[in-house]
Design goal:
Shape: globular
Structural class: mainly beta
Number of domains: 1
Helix content: under 10%
Distance between the termini: 16 Å
Number of helices: 0
Largest sheet: 6 strands, antiparallel
CATH architecture: Roll
Oligomer: single chain
């Protein structure tokens, strides 16, 4: 599954979020989620990570832990396709 700009996503607990500066990709800050959070997908970075907005801040995150969130059914769908 590929995310599109504006997708509402679910971020599991214990996932590392990285805030990078605009200059030289230096890490300004990072945090780990304590509980599942919601965020908005912004775009994919050149390194293949996802840029998301959560709680008003932009963070870089590995896409494998993210899920599409559908509030109507209160469900989150995996970004990784099942293999047989």
């Amino acid at each position: 599954m590929i995310f599109c700009t504006g997708d509402l996503i679910s971020i599991p607990s214990d996932v590392k979020l990285i805030k990078e500066s605009n200059e030289d990709d230096i890490v300004e800050d990072y945090k780990f989620t304590n509980k599942p959070e919601l965020g908005i997908f912004i775009k994919y970075t050149q390194t293949g990570k996802c840029l998301i907005n959560t709680n008003g801040d932009k963070w870089s995150i590995d896409p494998y832990g993210l899920r599409i969130y559908e509030g109507k059914y209160d469900k989150a769908y995996s970004n990784i396709q099942a293999t047989k």
